[in-house]
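#struct-help
A.M.: can someone run this one for me? Single chain, 277 residues.
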Amino acid sequence: MDLHFILGGALVGFIVGATGVGGGSLMTPLLTLVFNVPAQVAVGTDLLFASLTKASGAVAHARRGSVQWRITGLLVAGSVPAALITLGAVHVLKPDSVLFAEIVKRTLGVALFLTAGALVLKTQIQALGQRLLAGTTSFAGLATAGGGAGYLAVSDTRLTRPAPTIAIGAVIGTLVTLTSVGAGVIGVVALFFLYPFLPTRQIVGSDIAHAVPLTLVAGLGHVSLGNVNWSMLGMLLIGSVPAIHLGAAVAHRLPERALRLALSTMLVGIGVRLVLG
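D.P.: on it. Structure tokens below:
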């Protein structure tokens, strides 16, 4: 039994449970840099890991009514085709395994920079989205008619933004397929910008629900490429599943702002190492 994979899964699971930071931004660098797993195998294995762990979270959010299914559907409409196109390109091009690993590592580094920036600037990005949306004529008219911007942003489908939501989904789909990073923090912050008046629980719930089909499709695509280590996946799940619940149980006792700043700093450092190699 590979105890180090169980311990690694437990560490990442605890941090995810305590902070909500997406597992891909932590798990894939851990596997690549610490456990010396080839980058493409780390990505493929982590994608299936994410699909399994996020499924229970999506069910929990759906039961609480915290998923805006129209938004989730628009994200999926962009992300799943983008994932399939990316996987198809890899199948057709058949890049050398060493070259592909380097491409994945560099892209992963960039994804970690974006994640760190999203963590630090989430509040400012949401505020910018509020100012831009509140200034539009259509939003102002609907808010006047409905008696409240927050209420309308949740309930009125006329305020759904199909084109940018699908576009964001496509970007996330490509990024997740190549790096396993993007469906967590980056997706949530993008939704905060597009739907800044939605309650946080609905932003998070919708993003988690979107991540399940995306990571499953991308993960199965990596299975076809031979990029999944099944025994390692089992060990990671053994460690992470109980640790996620433990992290969630103690989350309210931890200094969230300090933790997010520390995580952002760590992600930047890891990103620099991956990009500069």
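A.M.: thanks! Confidence is low (pLDDT under 50) at residues 143-157.
D.P.: also worth noting: The two ends are 30 Å apart (CA to CA).
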